[in-house]
Write a structure and sequence with these properties.
Elements lengths: L12 E3 L5 E4 L5 E3 L3 H23 L5 H5 L10 H19 L6 H7 L3 H28 L21 H9 L9 H16 L2 H21 L2 H34 L4 H57 L13 H23 L1
Antiparallel strand pairs: 1-2, 2-3
Helix pairs in contact: 1-6, 3-5, 5-9, 5-10, 7-8, 8-10, 9-10
Amino acid sequence: MGESCPHCGAAAIELEAEGAIRRCRACGRSALRGADAPNRTASAAAAAHELATMPSAFATANSPPLARRRPAGPGEVPILPAAGFALLATLLFYGALRWIPDTRLAELFVERGWVQYAITFVSSWALALLAAKRRRLARERRMLGRDWLARPGAGALLRPEDVDATLAHLAGQADFDFDALLARRLVRALRHFQARRRVVEVVEFLNAEARADEGRIDASYGLIRVFIWAVPTLGFIGTVIGIGAAVGGFSTTLETASSIEGMRESIESVTGGLGVAFDTTLLALVMSIVVMFPSNALQRLEEAFLGEVDDDCAEHLVRRLADESGAESDDAALDRLVERLIAALRKRDAAGG
C-alpha cells in the first residue's frame, strides 16, 4: 500500500490476490511486483530531472543556432555575401586597370564591350563561393581528432540514459560548434541511440547520414557548375557580337570602295569586330579554367573530409556506445516478462479456486 505507482506516481497501488500483479486505484494501470520497480521509478525521475535541466544547460553561446535557424547543409555557403564580395572585387579590378590604360591587359578587359565585364563578375562570384567553401572546410576540420564525448567522472561506455547529460556537456564547451558537420552528426546519432537503444541501428543511421551528406556536398556545387557553364557561353555571345560587328563593317567597306580613306575606316571596324570576337572567347576560356580546376580540387577535399568524419564517429562515438543487447537482449527480457505474467496469473487462478 505504501508503494507508488510507476506510471502516475500516486501512492494508490494495491496487490491483487497476493500475486505479483499490482493495480493502481488512481490511474487503473497494472504493474509487476518486483525489486526493479523502484529502480525504474528512480531512473524515470532522474531522467525527468535531467530533461528539465536541459534548457538551462543548453542556454549557452553554442546552442542558439540549433534553436533559431536551420543549420546550413554540408558545403553550403551564403550566396549573396559572395556576390557582394565579387562585385566589390570587380570594381576594384577595373579601377586598377585605369592606372594602366595603354596595355594589352586593359584592352582585353575594358575595350571589348559589356561581355568582358559580365565574364569578370561571374568568374569572381564563383571564386568567392569557392573561397567561402574552403574557409568553412578549414573551420570544420578543427573539430576532428578530439574526443568531444568524454566527460569527467563518466564511465567508459555511454548508455541511452547518459545522452541528455552528454548533450549538456557538449553545449557547455565553448569551442564546440553545433553548426559543424561533425557536431550535427554526433548530436543526431546520440538522439537516435537514445530513442532506439541499439548500437547496430546507430551504425546504420550513420551510414545513411554519410550517403546523404555526399549528395549534399555534390549539390552544393550546383551554382558553381552553372557559372562554369555560363562563362564560356558569355564568351560565345561576345564572339557572335564581334563577328556581327565585323560583317556589318565589311558591308560598309563594300559601299565605300570608291574612297581609299573610307575603306581604311571600314577595315578598322571590321578588324575591331574580329578583335571583340576573339578576345571575348579567349577571356571566357581562360576564366572557365581558372574556376574549374579549384572547384574540382575543393570538391575532392570535401569528399575526403566526409570520410574523415565517418572515421571520427566510428572512433569516438560508436566504440563508446553500450550495446544493451550484449548483457540481455530484448527478446530475453520479453521472455522473462511473459514468464512472470504467466506465473502471476496461475497464482491468481489458484487463489480464486
